[in-house]
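Next up, sample data.

:::
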Amino acid sequence: MAITQKPFPPRPMNGGNKPQQQGMRGRKVEKENPNRINNEITAPMVRIVGENVEPNLVVPIKQALAMADEMELDLIEISPNAEPPVCRIADYQKFLYQQKRKAKEIKAKQVKVVVKEIRFGPQTDDHDYNFKLKHAENFIKEGAKVKASVFFRGRSIVFKEQGEILLLRFATDLEEIAKVELMPKLDGKKMNMILAPKGKK
């Protein structure tokens, strides 16, 4: 008996990686963000915003789609949880570009906090202390935070009070350029203190 082999389904043109949505102007746009557009919007009524649109305009979804179609633009759902959902009439590709640009600007404005660690022993001598103090000054002036740590090895934990005194001395020596963000605190076998640069007056 002959076996009929079913043909494989055709591969999607975009590689099957990104779903595509037909725009109001007949073009296909790749969905790169969670906004629903055009016929994906399921709410019966929507509030319309955008250029050349009456403020606080609430219309049925069919009318909103017709308005976008008339302007040769897309209907983009920007606040799905509002009552009713808020949609913008705009060019979807331009909308995506603006969203990416805003995200990049926000990321660029975010300041990355660098934390540098300075390690001491509970009985650090003056030479080693001054050497590390100089390093801490440079880190603070560069805008980094400094985590000063005293490590207690073996039975040296009995010197924890000396470790706290050392850290407080360290904070005092840096008080003109740094403020204490975390007071000396014992964590297992080490005591930590965090200093941050003082804001410019």
Remarks:
- Confidence is low (pLDDT under 50) at residues 1-20.
- The two ends are 91 Å apart (CA to CA).
